Amino acid sequence: MTYKVSFTPTANDDIAKHRKSGDKQVLKRLERIKIELEKHPETGVGNPNRKKYSYAGC
What we know:
The protein has two helices and no strands. The chain is mostly helical and 58 residues long. The longest helix is centred in the middle third of the chain and has 16 residues, at 24-39.
């Protein structure tokens, strides 16, 4: 099963800055985290955690 990962506008701006700066290591890491989250969002390199309290549905 594949999940959909969406980014906030702030995250998209940050990614664009990294692309513009040409920081390939950071871009590779971001891509790796995105792929990991799409495959299995509860484990992986990004250390994802479930949202707690009133943030669970956000």
